[in-house]
């Protein structure tokens, strides 16, 4: 059978959530043997996410995991102040370790934030990852494309074009790599940590499982952009707020 693509997605309630998850789920529906592990940053499973999953026809696991209060971004706080999605991704990893066996289950794990844009192609390519694979990410790090450079002779990553914190060992976005499932099952200590400098989540986790030399380049030797670090702006809901004072808040 095809190796499974396990996609771990942290998500939280806000006006654009249903639109983001709809875009994601309708991409994932086009991929065979994909298992969506969606982790809500909330106290309880919400009806919005439960219904979206139920109606999607996807293989999924619906988890909840609250960001510890001291790590939760405040309303007006700039987002780079605190890393986001850390405990949710770890909850997804914990679920995999409790549910899957390295001798039986073959697959790859991908950390897909709910606001990015993913192609079917990259999801299909990453499933054959032996250890850890990498590829370019569009619209991130102050660049149109942030990417590893591949040495044509060796087929290995020789350098990176990253402009933001290029001194990182793996100067790459969360959307730009995937890790083999067995590796994560065999090394149960591998997880995301708050105890890292800003921008070091990716370097921290990749350092625990591989080296830059071992990375497997995908997307035509990292020449194609197959994922984008898109971000939705908060919609103007000024009129809703005026109405809300008179009646119940509208729901999705
Ligand atoms: N996220 C979350 N709780 C929060 C903020 C973000 O679960 O309080 C999720 C969000 O839905 C996304 C991931 O964490 O899937 C990364 O967040 P974001 O897209 O804001 O990060 P950025 O794109 O700025 O790195
Ligand atoms: Mn994002």
UniProtKB/TrEMBL annotation:
Q: Locate the region Disordered.
A: 238-252
Gene Ontology molecular function: galactosylgalactosylxylosylprotein 3-beta-glucuronosyltransferase activity; metal ion binding
For this entry, list what GO says about its biological process. Answer: carbohydrate metabolic process; chondroitin sulfate proteoglycan biosynthetic process
Record site feature (Interaction with galactose moiety of substrate glycoprotein), residues: 146
Q: Which reaction does it catalyse?
A: 3-O-(beta-D-galactosyl-(1->3)-beta-D-galactosyl-(1->4)-beta-D-xylosyl)-L-seryl-[protein] + UDP-alpha-D-glucuronate = 3-O-(beta-D-GlcA-(1->3)-beta-D-Gal-(1->3)-beta-D-Gal-(1->4)-beta-D-Xyl)-L-seryl-[protein] + UDP + H(+)
Task: Return the EC number.
Answer: 2.4.1.135
Glycosylation-annotated residues? 221
What is the predominant subcellular site recorded for this chain? Golgi
Q: Cellular component per GO?
A: Golgi membrane
Lipid bilayer topology? Single-pass type II membrane protein
Keyword list (alphabetical) reads: Glycoprotein, Golgi apparatus, Manganese, Membrane, Metal-binding, Signal-anchor, Transferase, Transmembrane, Transmembrane helix
Q: Spell out the catalytic residues.
A: 202 (proton donor/acceptor)
Q: What pathway is it annotated to?
A: Protein modification; protein glycosylation
Sites where the protein binds Mn(2+)? 115
Q: What class of enzyme is it?
A: transferase
Subcellular location, in the record's words? Golgi apparatus membrane
- Needed cofactors: Mn(2+)
Q: Family per UniProt?
A: Belongs to the glycosyltransferase 43 family.
Q: What is this protein called?
A: Galactosylgalactosylxylosylprotein 3-beta-glucuronosyltransferase
Organism of derivation: Bemisia tabaci
User: Upper taxonomic classification of the species?
Assistant: Eukaryota, Metazoa, Ecdysozoa, Arthropoda, Hexapoda
């Amino acid at each position: 059978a095809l190796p499974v693509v396990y996609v771990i997605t942290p998500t939280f309630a806000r006006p654009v959530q249903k639109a983001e998850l709809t875009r994601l789920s309708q991409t994932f529906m086009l991929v065979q043997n994909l298992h969506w592990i969606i982790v809500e940053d909330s106290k309880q499973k919400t009806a919005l996410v439960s219904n979206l999953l139920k109606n999607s026809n996807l293989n999924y696991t619906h988890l909840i995991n609250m960001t510890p209060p001291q790590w939760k971004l405040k309303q007006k706080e700039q987002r780079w102040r605190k890393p986001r999605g850390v405990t949710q991704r770890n909850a997804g990893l914990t679920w995999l370790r409790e549910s899957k066996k390295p001798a039986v289950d073959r697959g790859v794990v991908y950390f897909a934030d709910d606001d990015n844009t993913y192609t079917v192609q990259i999801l299909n390519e990453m499933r054959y990852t032996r250890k850890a694979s990498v590829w370019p990410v569009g619209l991130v790090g102050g660049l149109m494309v942030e990417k590893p450079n591949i040495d044509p002779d060796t087929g290995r990553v020789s350098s990176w074009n990253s402009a933001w914190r290029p001194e990182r060992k793996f100067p790459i976005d969360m959307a730009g790599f995937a890790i083999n499932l067995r590796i994560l099952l065999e090394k149960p200590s591998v997880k995301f940590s708050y105890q890292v400098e800003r921008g070091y989540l990716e370097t921290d986790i990749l350092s625990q499982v591989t080296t830059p030399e071992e990375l497997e380049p995908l997307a035509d030797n990292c020449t194609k952009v197959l994922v984008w670090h898109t971000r939705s702006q908060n919609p103007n809901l000024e009129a809703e707020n005026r109405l809300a004072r008179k009646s119940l808040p509208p729901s999705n």
